[in-house]
């Protein structure tokens, strides 16, 4: 089993991760994890743990993980948004085909306000993109 374990383990947390060096080469042949750093993805900060200095290899591994994690989170954001489009379609179908008057009364105002807010933001952002595109072309 120890041959299959990675050299580093990243315990994911909301804004990044705790970084551990995995050690299986000890007398008890136990898995030991020594925390070496804390990563904050939001601000790009990497703090060595316990007054230690990080080696070039450790910094490279951490940097690679941060890049992979950032890419994964960006992909998840897009996936979540595409699911929101599906939910809007499901909601429209539900409202048209199955919803009772009482159910519609319970949800209509909340849905309309959320959709109005979203539409306002999307229209403003699209207009900003169009103006920037015109500025770069003109």
TrEMBL record:
It comes from the Bacteria. This is Uncharacterized protein. It comes from Aquimixticola soesokkakensis.
């Amino acid at each position: 089993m120890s041959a299959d374990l990675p050299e580093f383990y990243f315990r994911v947390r909301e804004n990044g991760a705790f970084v551990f060096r995995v050690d299986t080469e000890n007398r008890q042949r136990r898995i030991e994890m020594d925390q070496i750093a804390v990563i904050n993805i939001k601000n790009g900060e990497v703090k060595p743990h316990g007054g230690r200095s990080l080696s070039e290899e450790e910094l490279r591994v951490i940097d690679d993980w941060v890049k992979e994690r950032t890419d994964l989170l960006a992909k998840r954001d897009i996936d979540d948004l595409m699911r929101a489009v599906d939910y809007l379609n499901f909601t429209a179908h539900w409202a048209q085909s199955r919803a009772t008057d009482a159910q519609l009364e319970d949800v209509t105002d909340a849905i309309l306000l959320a959709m109005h807010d979203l539409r306002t933001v999307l229209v403003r952002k699209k207009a900003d993109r169009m103006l920037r595109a015109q500025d770069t072309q003109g």
